[in-house]
Amino acid sequence: MGLSIIRRFAVLVVLLSLASWLQADPVWEVSKDDKRIRLGATVHFLRAADLPPPAAMQQAFEQAQQVYLESNLADSASPAFSRRLTQMMMQPAGRSLEDDLSDPVWRQLQDYAAQANFPLATYQGFKPAMVSMAMTVHELGRQGFGRGVDEFYFTRANQQGKTLGFLESSDTLLSFMAQLNEESSDALIESSLEGIEHMDGMMEEAVDAWRKGDMDGLYALLGADEMQTEYPGIYQNLIIERNRQWYPKIQQAMTEGTPNLVLVGALHLGGPDSLRVMFEEAGYQVVPFMAGAE
């Protein structure tokens, strides 16, 4: 089946930043006409040993007066967001998760739930997309992955009284989750189970890429290039359209004084359609920001 869907949609839950003391940290400074801003790559799930983030990102955060994240984490953690997600992912009346799956796939899912202590009964009333995401988060938790860069800096910004800005609304996040409902139910669960089986190795490779500062390598590792070929509509909406929507907002956030900091998922800073490429093609200077720089 090629790269599993869980890897193609890894950007929804495991967008990894990249850092190494041997190479540039996952922060770039973008400048033009005396205005500049810093772009940092994030991951939504990290292990405790991976925090705090790299020194350059910490310095960029401390120097920034305003910090921008993809979306407001307080909104996505609210009861209202949970209700909307639940409604979007619920099965129609009289239908269950088992009804959406073939017998062989249902048995595979039952076997995984028993082996991994996944509460399958809790998700009988949900669509396969919800179960796929829940399994991913469950497995990441089993491997010791918890809060990521976004939550780390969201909390610190609030503690320090920094101004927070957001590039998109919680409605946008829900719309991307809804796209998963359009995938084949059997294929989604099978691919999720396949991805989970190989997640440990994939995450170790991703951590290696993180340590080496290989943003484009991570882009390939997470299957973004294959997603573009096999799921062009999702790639268009998930990467290209969001970058286009964020680009003018980042331009507006540029300052002539101390640069503000924008934190986005790593796949938005790697590959041919990245924000870095967009700025470079528009004549901006894009250079790594190293710890100790002004």
Written description of the protein model:
This protein is 50% helix and 13% strand. The protein has 294 residues and is an alpha/beta fold. It has one domain (5-288). The strands form two sheets. It has a six-stranded mixed sheet with strand order 6-4-7-2-1-8, with helices on both faces. Helix 12 packs across helix 13 (232-252). The relative contact order is 0.25. Mean pLDDT is 85; it is low at 1-24. This is GumN protein superfamily.
List its traits.
disordered N terminus; 14 helices; elongated; YbaP-like; 294 residues; 6-stranded mixed beta sheet; alpha/beta; 8 strands
Determine the N-to-C terminus distance: 48 Å
Q: In which order are the strands of the major sheet placed? A: 6-4-7-2-1-8
Helix coverage percent of residues?
40-55%
Strand content: 5-15%
What's the Cα radius of gyration?
19 Å
| Biggest β-sheet description | 6 strands, mixed
The tally of strands reads: 8
Number of domains: 1
What sequence of helices (H) and strands (E) makes up the elements? HEEEHEHHHHEHEHHHHHHEHE
- Low-confidence regions: 1-24
- Give the overall form: elongated
Overall pLDDT metric: 85
Protein name: GumN protein superfamily
InterPro entries: TraB/PrgY/GumN_fam (IPR002816), YbaP-like (IPR047111)
Pfam families: TraB_PrgY_gumN (PF01963)
